[in-house]
């Protein structure tokens, strides 16, 4: 697919693939990736039903095809259809390149935090343009008991993602397909700071984590790799 190298919004996805390829074959890798190119979301009633465009499916497949085939890969995804479609097409591409797919599994934490009052969605624009402010307001407790406390969400998120790959002894890759909300919340949690506008990922952009043989954790974010620690 010629568009893989030419589409501007794929730059972060291309960088993520290059980062994975640069890692040793015995690595344990975890990716947290925004779903691919989707149909336009005009209002909140379309949030759950909006699917990938044909371009979104093609680029998902192509990303999977470019990932290294020597790492058996387990796909996890938000139950929302565009995330499943991204995981499905990416897994097809990975298999076409000779890669082994361990499984494809839904993971609720990748969809949304626990929502206790649907009115909380009125604070988030349907297309996610104000996602930075939304995540920071959530993390600062400004939504009160309308939404799960971010500290509680952090415990569940890390258990289902980073701790899962930490608990794996074999070399493999876990790819998590999610949305703006979970990805930006994850950045706030892992970077231990409020998110900024430039933290927002385009379609198929995301973050990478490498676990070395000493269980040290390297985070790849916005083209930069740094060692991080998790709070006990």
Written account of the structure:
The chain is of the alpha/beta class and 232 residues long. It has a single domain, classed as Rossmann fold, CATH 3.40.50.1240. 35% of the residues lie in helices and 18% in strands. The N and C termini lie far apart (44 Å).
Highlighted features:
globular, about 20% strand, seven-stranded mixed β-sheet, about 230 residues, alpha/beta
What is the strand and helix layout of this fold?
Blueprint: H1 3-6, H2 11-21, E1 28-34, H3 54-66, E2 73-77, H4 81-96, E3 101-106, H5 131-139, H6 150-160, H7 162-166, E4 172-178, H8 180-191, E5 206-211, E6 217-221, E7 224-228
Parallel strand pairs: 1-4, 2-3, 2-4
Antiparallel strand pairs: 1-5, 5-6, 6-7
Helix pairs in contact: 3-4, 5-8
What's this, in brief?
The protein has helices spanning 3-6, 11-21, 54-66, 81-96, 131-139, 150-160, 162-166, 180-191; strands at 28-34, 73-77, 101-106, 172-178, 206-211, 217-221, 224-228. By secondary structure, it is of the alpha/beta class. The protein has one domain: Rossmann fold (3-Layer(aba) Sandwich).
By secondary-structure content and strand pairing, the structural class works out as: alpha/beta
Helix content: 25-40%
> What fraction of residues sit in β-strands?
15-25%
Task: Domain count, please report it.
Answer: 1
Shape: globular
Q: What is the CATH topology?
A: Rossmann fold
The residue ranges in which pLDDT falls below 50 over 5 or more consecutive positions are none
Find the count of extended strands (DSSP E, 2+ residues).
Answer: 7
Quaternary assembly: single chain
One letter per element, helices H and strands E, the order comes to HHEHEHEHHHEHEEE
Architecture (CATH level 2) name: 3-Layer(aba) Sandwich
How far do the termini sit from each other? 44 Å
Average of the residue pLDDT scores: 92
The CATH H-level superfamily is: Phosphoglycerate mutase-like
């Amino acid at each position: 697919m010629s568009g893989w190298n030419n589409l501007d919004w794929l730059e972060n996805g291309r960088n993520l693939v290059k980062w994975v390829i640069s890692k040793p074959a015995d690595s344990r890798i975890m990716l947290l990736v925004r779903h691919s190119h989707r149909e336009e979301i005009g209002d909140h009633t379309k949030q759950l039903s909006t699917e990938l465009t044909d371009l979104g499916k093609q680029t998902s497949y192509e990303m999977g095809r470019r990932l290294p085939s020597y790492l058996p890969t387990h796909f996890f995804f938000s139950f929302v259809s565009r995330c499943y479609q991204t995981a499905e097409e990416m897994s097809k591409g990975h298999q076409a390149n000779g890669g082994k797919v361990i499984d494809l599994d839904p993971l609720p934490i990748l969809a949304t935090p626990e929502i206790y009052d649907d009115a909380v969605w009125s604070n988030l624009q349907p297309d996610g343009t104000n996602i930075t402010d939304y995540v920071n307001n959530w993390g600062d407790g400004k939504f009160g008991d309308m939404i799960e406390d971010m500290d509680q969400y952090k415990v569940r998120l890390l258990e289902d993602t980073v701790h899962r790959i930490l608990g794996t002894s074999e070399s493999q890759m876990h790819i998590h397909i999610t949305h703006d909300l979970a990805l930006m919340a994850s950045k706030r949690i892992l970077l231990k700071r409020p998110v900024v506008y430039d933290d927002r990922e385009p379609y198929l952009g995301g973050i990478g984590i490498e676990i070395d043989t000493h269980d040290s954790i390297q985070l790849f974010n916005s083209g930069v790799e740094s060692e991080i620690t998790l709070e006990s």
